[in-house]
């Protein structure tokens, strides 16, 4: 992909990611790394999403951490994520 939207449920982190000025907070090294990685994309946007709407991402991230593999989602999606996606799809208006 050359254009990405990164969503997160931490408003303070998303705000820091949107600003290109050096950050002096405790997470400054992480923000710097995020800015460096964003250079690999033509367009990289950071958007806040409330945790209550973030259930699917939480499932995917939790499963990825448990699997301890770099290719976790290549070619497949775990069953729990498919179920949550369907629940979210029903909740979202067209």
From TrEMBL:
It holds the Pfam family RVT_3. It comes from the Eukaryota. Residues 1-64 form the RNase H type-1 domain. Signal peptide: none annotated. GO terms for molecular function: nucleic acid binding; RNA-DNA hybrid ribonuclease activity. InterPro entries: RNaseH_domain, RNaseH_sf. This is RNase H type-1 domain-containing protein.
């Amino acid at each position: 992909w050359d254009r990405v939207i990164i969503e997160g449920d931490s408003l303070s982190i998303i705000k820091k990611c949107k600003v290109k000025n050096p950050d002096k907070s405790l997470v400054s090294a992480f923000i710097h790394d995020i800015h460096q990685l964003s250079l690999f994309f033509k367009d990289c946007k950071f958007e806040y999403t409330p945790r209550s709407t973030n259930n699917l991402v939480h499932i995917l991230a939790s499963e990825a951490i448990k699997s301890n593999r770099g290719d976790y989602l290549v070619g497949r999606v775990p069953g729990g994520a498919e179920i949550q996606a369907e629940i979210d799809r029903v909740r979202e208006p067209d």
